[in-house]
């Protein structure tokens, strides 16, 4: 995910903005989202790792520590999923239409 965001943030978005300044409005939202998503995915990865470590010690009934780990992981998933859905929706509604409009008017764009 980090590689994908780096390519967009440091290559595609700046190139699009230079070629078509009106794209700036459509790129600011996904760019800001990348930082938020990166942080959320880092927390999710850490919680997943901790949860798997705790569950690896399961012998029959889960302990309260293991249940807490699962609850924490579920809460982070519930927090992260809407961020990802919104981010992808923003790209579909904002960035992609602007890019399509530009490509239609200039087939050599990009």
UniProtKB/TrEMBL annotation:
InterPro entries, per database record: Hemerythrin-like (IPR012312)
Domain Hemerythrin-like intervals: 1-99
Name-wise, this protein is Cation-binding protein
């Amino acid at each position: 995910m980090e590689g994908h965001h780096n390519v967009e943030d440091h290559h595609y978005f700046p190139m699009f903005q230079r070629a078509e300044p009106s794209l700036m409005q459509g790129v600011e939202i996904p760019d800001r989202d990348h930082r938020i998503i990166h942080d959320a995915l880092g927390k999710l990865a850490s919680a997943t790792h901790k949860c798997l470590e705790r569950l690896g010690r399961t012998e029959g009934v889960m302990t309260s520590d293991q249940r807490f780990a699962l609850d924490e992981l579920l809460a982070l998933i519930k927090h992260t999923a809407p961020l990802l859905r919104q981010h992808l929706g923003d790209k579909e509604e904002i960035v992609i239409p602007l890019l399509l409009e530009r490509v239609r008017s200039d087939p050599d764009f990009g």
